[in-house]
Each structure stands twice: as C-alpha cells, then as structure tokens.
C-alpha cells in the first residue's frame, strides 16, 4: 500500500464528509409522512464516510506492515520513478488536450478544434510518424463531419464570426 | 403474442433495420476484439448514432453491438492470447493453448458455434421469461421496487471487484450522484451549489461516457507508445471445421453452461465474466479429463463460450421485465430507452409491445448474423489490431465528445464528461470498481423515490418495507449478498 493511496483515501473522506455536512441543510424540507429531501443523501454519505474511514485504516495498516517487512520496497527505484513521471505527464497532457478542445470548440467551431485536438492528442501520445501526424487529423475530422453533420444531421458547434462562416461552408 | 412476433419479424426485415443489425454486430465484434475497448464502451460510443434513429433501429444496433462485443472478445483471446473482454480469460487459457498447438481455426469454430448457441438459447429464455416476470412485476408496489433496487445494488457492490469495501464506496458514490439536482418530491435543489448545470441532475449518458470511456482512454494514454501488433498464425477456417461427434461427446457441458450463463446473467452485477468462470469451473469439476484443463481443453472452451454469450439474454430479461440493469452495458440501454422517451419495466410490454418484441427478434437475429459476420470479418478484425492506437483513441475521444454534446447540444455537458473522466481515472487507479457507481447512478433515483413513496403510503412507518413478504425476502437477500462476500469468496473469482 503506497503513500499516495493513503493520501487519496484522505481526499475521499474529506469529499464525503463535506457533502454530508451540506446534506444536513436539506433535512428540514419534507411533506407529512415523508423522510425529507436530505434523508437519502445523508444515509448514502454517512455510509460512504464510514466505509472510507475503514478503508483508510486498513490501507494505513497495510502500508505500515509493508514498511516493516521490507523497508526498501516502500520507496520506488529510479527507473520506476521515471516511468511514473512519464505516465503522469502523458495523462496530464491528454487531459489538458481534452480541456483545451472543449474550451475552444464554441469559438472556433467543431471542424477546426477537432483538427487541432487530434494533432495535439496523438502528439501527446508520442506519435512521431509524420504521415500519421499530418493526415489523421484531417481524415478523422472529415469522417466525423460526414457521418454526424451530413448523414445524421447533428447540430455540431459552428464557432463565432469568421469561424462560423467557415463552418457553414462545410456543414 | 404471435401477432407481435409477426409484426416484429416484418419490422426487422426492413432494409434500414437489417443495416443497423449488421453495423451494430460488426461494431460490437470490433469493440470486443480490440483490447482497448470493452463491450460497454462500444455500446456507449454507439449512443450518439442512435439519437436520430427510430427506437427499433436504435435498439437493434445497440443489442447487436452488445452481443457482438461479448462474442468478439474471444477472437483476440484465441489468436493472440489477449483477452478483449474480462469474460474471455478462460478462452485465453484453453483457446490460445489450442492455437499454440496449431489448431487456431478449430478453436475459433468451437468458440463461434458455442457462443452463438449459448446466445440463441438465452434469447429463447428471454422470450419466454420476460412476459411472465413482467406480469408478476405489475403487482409490485413501491416497497417491492425499493427492495429490488437494494438487491441489485448490493449484488453489484459485492461482485464487482477484488475489494467489497471499495465496491460499496463506489456504490454509495453513485447513489450520491443520483441525488444531485432537483428533488422529485419536494422540488428542493440538492448539491447544485447555485449552478444551473446541475439543476436537472447528472445525465446518465454524460456520466457513463466520462466514467467508462474517457477514463479508459486516459489510462491507455499513459501506456508506452504502441506500435503495430504482430499478426497471428492463422490461415483459414474451412479445413478445421469440428465434427458433430465432438459436440455430442460434450453434451452435458453444452447443456449446463448456457443455463448457468443465463441465470448468472440475470443476477445484477454478475454478468458475462462470472458466468464464464462459473461454467468453466463446473466443466473442470465434472470433466472426465480434468488434467487437460489449462492445456487446450475443448470442453473448457465450450463451457466458457456458451455461458458468456448466454449471459446477454439473462441480463436483458431483467432489464426488459423489471427495468433493472444488471451490468454496465444494460445500464447504457436504460439510457437509450430514456433518449427515446421510454421507461423500461413491466408496463413497457403492454404499452410498447412493438419495441419489446422487436428487441427479442433483434437479439435472435443478431446472434444468427454474428455467425456469418465473424466468419467473413475475422481477417478484418485482425487487421484492426494493426491500427495506430493513438489515432484510434483520438477517434474514440471525439465520439465521446459528440455523445455527451449531442444529448442536449450543451457545452456544459462536455465539462461534466471531462470531470467524470478524471473521477473515473482516479477510481481505476486506486482500485475502485466503476460498475457499482454507474449502476447506483441509474438505480439510485428509483431506490430513493420507491423508499419515500413507501413511507408516504405508510405515513412514515418503516415496517412497510418488511411487512410485505416479497419485499422482506428481497431485502433479506440484499443483506446476505453484502455480508456473504465479506466472509467467503469463491477461489476462482478472486482478483476479478
């Protein structure tokens, strides 16, 4: 059991306890015979909080046990540390690409944002072959626009100003 | 009843429905065959295509993809030793051993015929059982529905992963998510924090797309860059067609396994994986040659494949008759029902028999079509494994974006999808199973409303939940299913 798992359990407990605190405000609103708007969330969040505390205790005990049995194994080797950093970087880049895609789509429209997104995302996944990097954003966007905008008739975002005019030209 | 079947058959044989059946089957086979995509992910990615379809075409494409996904998972299992689906692990053990002995085509025939046989058996059970269970369920009141949802949630939490504790936490998180938005009884806003984005509650589809598909891509994105995979040593299927005597010799396994699969499939949360392992374990236990298991036992392959496909019919029976999803994939189908303004459950059989009987016939035809589609398309699925994963995952992510956006044409749903993607990523990272959260999100609302309606009926007396026999039995079963795995878990299911 690693340190970050114990830390994650703390975050989970904090989340459930905060929501539980918030759910007590709902408890007063109810009809005759009804248990009220707060009853069900209080029940679920109380159970979640208690279970999370049990999980934290058991995780912590396992962590301590591992540390005692093999003190060297509790810390990562340099190779494992590099691998972990690389994994975290790729995950962060993938999430940032998606966030950027969602942020720019209403302004530049679906077509241009998708071309940019596909290029950035496959680059983040360490794709380095030039034909794939150059062709796939255009081919993928064209395929998606043909199927969803032309064939199914889904109203995909068009963007604003110049970008809206550009999008209307395509779909 | 027969006129409903005649109408359904006539509807299924329309060109657009046949096209939906073919495309859904192909997509499902592809999703199942590719290790990066699960059946539930395959079905969720199909949802945006169904927005503009007629309800029957939409359900046809979705159930075909569901059956295809379960079937397709075994193709890569046999040829590459990579389970496309968790339910294909016994197939890897026996099927890939046969492939290594140079009998890949033979193993593919066994898998295909047993899968389709198991699938068709379970469809007939579904056709017979759904009207009976639905008629019985018409007598259900709010206490019975509450007890039923509790049973569903408890079984899901207990069976969905290695840690029961984490399963229960995931389930409670799903129940909490279901309470967000406007309270259906008092009209009070809950956990919206003054925003309008959460006022209508959390959309199933947005949450499912995020938790299941986006998080999966984030997980895959972390992996080292994937080059093209090698191709299998596979030549053709004509030469190695198994003889009828091979099936005759193993008839007890072929008779038992689809029954195990259908029953296990009907249990909420159990699904194809447990069905395959239970049938495989039973075949090993009763086999005359148990020493062959693990080294290419045909009997083991037959058992696992008959059972995992048979689970689809069992799962669909409960969905169509009671409106309770038994797995992630059937939870997607609930979302599809809602997109088309339908409420799955006992009333749907009388209100929209065209849809229910249409789904029966579509599932039957999907299994028949899958036989041909797999034989014809097997080389294509193998070639798909050579696609660059980077481009493939970009395509999946765009489908996720379209699926979440297309529901309400609202950009806010995309932010929610991203948030659920991140939540799902961390849940997977720290070993919290996703299925209980997804199913609790779907069932949580029904459970709360049933509980509160029960208490309104009894003027606040909670004894109404245990004073009605069926409700009491179901609640007792729910308690047992939570407590039992804490003390004992079958050895062969550990680590699933």
List the helices and strands and how they pair.
The complex is a heterodimer of chains A (171) and B (496).
Chain A lengths: L2 H21 L15 H31 L8 H47 L5 H23 L8 H10 L1
Helix pairs in contact in A: 1-2, 3-4, 3-5
Chain B lengths: L1 H11 L2 H19 L5 H12 L4 H26 L8 H12 L3 H34 L4 H18 L4 H16 L1 E2 L6 E2 L13 H19 L21 H6 L1 H16 L4 H16 L11 H25 L5 H12 L6 H6 L1 H32 L4 H20 L3 H18 L4 H24 L6 H4 L1 H19 L9
Antiparallel strand pairs in B: 1-2
Radius of gyration of chain B from CA coordinates: 22 Å
Tally the structural domains of chain B.
1
- Radius of gyration of chain A, in Å, reads 25 Å
The count of β-strands of chain A is 0
Instruction: Give the rounded overall mean pLDDT of chain B.
Output: 82
Secondary structure tally: strands of chain B: 2
Helix fraction of chain B?
over 70%
Question: What is the H-and-E element order of chain B?
Answer: HHHHHHHHEEHHHHHHHHHHHHH
Q: Biggest interface and its residues per chain?
A: A-B, 63 and 61 residues
What's the rounded overall pLDDT mean of chain A? 87
Which structural class matches the secondary elements of chain A? Answer: mainly alpha
What does this structure look like?
- The complex is a heterodimer of chains A (171) and B (496).
- With 171 residues, chain A is mainly alpha-helical.
- Chain A folds into two domains: 1-74; 76-171, no CATH class.
- Chain A has five helices and no strands.
- The longest helix of chain B is centred in the N-terminal third of the chain and has 34 residues, at 104-137.
- The model of chain B is unreliable at 490-496 (pLDDT under 50).
- In chain B, strands 1-2 form a two-stranded antiparallel ribbon.
- Chains A and B meet through α1, α2, α3 and α4 of A and α8, α9, α17, α18 and α19 of B.
């Amino acid at each position: 059991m690693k340190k970050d798992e114990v830390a994650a359990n703390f975050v989970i407990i904090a989340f459930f306890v905060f929501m539980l605190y918030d759910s007590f405000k709902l408890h007063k609103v109810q009809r005759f015979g009804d248990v009220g708007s707060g009853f069900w969330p209080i029940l679920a969040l109380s159970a979640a909080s208690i279970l999370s505390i049990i999980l934290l205790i058991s995780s912590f005990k396992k962590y301590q046990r591992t540390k005692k049995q093999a003190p060297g194994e509790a810390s990562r080797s340099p190779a494992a540390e590099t691998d972990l950093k690389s994994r975290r970087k790729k995950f962060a880049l993938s999430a940032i690409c998606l966030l950027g895609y969602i942020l720019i789509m209403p302004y530049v429209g679906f077509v241009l944002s998708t071309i940019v997104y596909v290029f950035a995302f496959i680059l983040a996944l360490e794709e380095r072959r030039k034909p794939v990097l150059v062709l796939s954003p255009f081919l993928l966007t064209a395929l998606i626009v043909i199927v969803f905008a032309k064939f199914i008739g889904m109203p995909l975002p068009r963007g604003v100003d110049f970008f809206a005019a550009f999008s209307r030209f395509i779909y | 009843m027969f006129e409903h079947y005649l109408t359904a058959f006539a509807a299924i044989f329309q060109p657009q429905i046949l096209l939906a059946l073919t495309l859904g089957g192909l997509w499902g086979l592809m999703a199942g065959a590719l290790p990066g995509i699960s059946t539930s992910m395959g079905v969720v990615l199909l949802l945006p295509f169904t927005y503009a379809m007629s309800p029957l075409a939409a359900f046809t494409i979705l159930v075909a993809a569901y059956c295809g996904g379960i079937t397709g998972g075994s193709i890569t299992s046999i040829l590459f030793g990579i389970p496309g689906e968790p339910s294909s692990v016994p197939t890897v053990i026996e099927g890939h051993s046969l492939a290594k002995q140079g009998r890949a085509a033979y193993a593919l025939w066994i898998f295909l015929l047993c899968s389709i046989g198991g699938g068709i058996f379970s469809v007939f059970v579904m056709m017979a059982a759904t009207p009976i269970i639905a008629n019985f369920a018409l007598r259900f009141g709010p206490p019975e529905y509450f007890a039923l949802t509790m049973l569903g949630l408890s079984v899901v939490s207990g069976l969905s992963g290695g840690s029961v504790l984490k399963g229960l936490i995931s389930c409670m998180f799903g129940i909490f998510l279901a309470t967000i938005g406007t309270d259906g009884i008092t009209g009070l806003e809950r956990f919206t924090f003054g925003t309008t984005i959460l006022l209508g509650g959390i959309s199933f589809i947005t949450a499912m797309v995020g938790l299941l598909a986006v998080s999966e891509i984030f997980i895959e994105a972390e992996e080292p860059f994937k080059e093209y995979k090698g191709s299998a040593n596979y030549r053709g299927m004509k030469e190695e067609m198994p003889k009828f005597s091979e099936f005759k010799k193993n008839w007890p396994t072929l008779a038992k396994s689809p029954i195990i699969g259908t029953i296990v499939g009907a249990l909420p949360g159990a699904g194809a994986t447990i069905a395959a392992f239970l049938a495989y374990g039973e075949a090993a236990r009763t086999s005359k040659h148990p020493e062959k298991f693990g080294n290419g036992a045909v009997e083991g392959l037959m058992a696992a494949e008959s059972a995992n496909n048979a689970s689809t019919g069992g799962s669909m029976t409960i969905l169509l008759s009671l409106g309770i999803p038994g797995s992630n994939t059937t939870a997607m189908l609930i979302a599809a029902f809602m997109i088309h303004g339908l409420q799955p459950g006992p009333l749907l059989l009388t209100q929209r028999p065209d849809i229910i009987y249409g789904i029966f016939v579509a599932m039957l035809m999907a299994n028949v079509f899958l036989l041909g589609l797999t034989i014809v398309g097997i080389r294509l699925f193998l070639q798909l494994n050579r696609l660059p994963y980077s481009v493939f995952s970009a395509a999946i992510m765009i489908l996720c974006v379209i699926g979440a956006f297309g529901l309400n044409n609202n950009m806010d749903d995309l932010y929610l999808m991203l948030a659920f993607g991140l939540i799902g990523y961390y849940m997977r990272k720290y070993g919290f199973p996703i299925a209980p959260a997804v199913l609790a999100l779907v069932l949580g609302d029904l459970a709360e409303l049933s509980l509160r309606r029960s208490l309104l009926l009894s003027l606040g007396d909670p004894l109404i939940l245990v004073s009605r026999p069926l409700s009491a039995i179901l609640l007792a079963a729910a308690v047992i299913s939570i407590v039992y795995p804490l003390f004992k878990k079958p050895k062969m299911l550990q680590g699933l």
